Amino acid sequence: MSDTIIRVLAKNAPVKASAISAKAMVERARQIHHTLPVATAALGRSLMAASMMGNQLKEDNGSVTLRIKGDGPLGGITVVADSAGNARGYVVNPLVDLPLKGPAKLDVGAAVGKNGSLTVIKDMNLKEPYVGTIPLVSGEIAEDVTSYFAESEQIPSACALGVLVDVDQSVLCAGGYLIQLLPGADDSVISAIEQGIAQVGPVTEAMRNGETARSLVERVLSAFELEVLAEEPVEYRCYCSRDRVTRALISMGREELESLIQDQGKAELTCQFCDKVYHYTGEELQTLLASL
Q1: Residue 31 has pLDDT above 80, yes or no
Q2: Could you say which of 40, 127, 136, 148 is the most buried, measured as most Cβ atoms within 10 Å of its Cβ?
Q3: In the sheet that 171-181 helps form, which strands lie side by side, from edge to edge?
Q4: CATH number at 4-233
Q5: Alpha-carbon distances of 71 from 60, 129, 186, 215, 223, rounded to whole Å
């Protein structure tokens, strides 16, 4: 079954929500970056958060970037999602290995670190992107995303993200939800949402028991009548190409290109998001230099 993202609106309350099932997306990231379990979980949670946030954008060519920089051994996470919810990303240190903090409980917070920041960059095709930065709350990703919406966008939210890694280190399941209150929500609405969250319990357990993105959000918001705004497939998608890499080389400028040719005589550039390697011979670099 393909990965899916769904956006809903409560008909009888000022509540909107998104949910995602993303086993294939997170597994693809694991295969590309050869992550060990705790890094798989941290990167997977970040990819799903960015995917749901990107999917909320109204601009067709918009994007959302999350940069998580903590003081833990993971070193940092960068993920980017387009406005359809397709996401890509990487961690600085994919081979981090930490003891479990409980039965089958990966210690993502310790891997990321509690001291640091979460930066959200929303590119909505305006002159300047929107940039918001907050201190990390726990390094567990979902709590930090919740804090970002409260502090930077003044939107009360509830975010849950989960990645379950199998004994062979592959991704068994991955999913999450993002519930947001709209103006006018009262205590009864908040109470109903809290009850739904408590009844569903941990996302990883719900997904392992067969929940889909749709059934997950329907269970969490079971107290409300929901209107489905969109339900569509998402995937791990990198937009790198030789043309983009060539433009990046040209943007280095004449001096740096000359230095590259002189020092190495060729170039090998690796995409951070998909690990694809682009090779340039000395002759090709000379042609680029001549074009300047």
Answers
A1: yes
A2: 40
A3: 157-165, 171-181, 15-21, 4-10, 226-233
A4: 3.55.30.10
A5: 35, 26, 38, 36, 40
Q: How many residues does the chain have?
A: 292
Indicate if the pLDDT at residue 184 is higher than 70: yes
**CA 290 to CA 24: how far, in whole Å?**
44
Q: Tell me which fold the domain 242-291 belongs to.
A: CBS domain Like (3.90.1280)
Largest Cα–Cα distance in the chain?
A: 69
Tell me if the pTM is above 0.90.
Answer: yes
CA–CA separation, 130 and 103 (whole Å): 40
pLDDT of residue 1: 61
Q: How far apart are CA 292 and CA 287, in angstroms?
A: 9
Instruction: Quickly list DSSP for 86-119.
Output: -EEEEES-TT-----SBTTB--HHHHH-SSEEEE
Question: What would the mean pLDDT of 191-215 be, rounded to a whole number?
Answer: 95
Residue the block writes with tokens 């890509």: 88
pLDDT tens figures, 266-286: 888 889 899 899 999 988 988
**CATH 3.55.30.10 domain extents, the chain:** 4-233
Considering only 2-16, 208-222, 248-262, which range has the smallest mean pLDDT?
248-262
In whole angstroms, give the CA distance from residue 174 to residue 14.
28
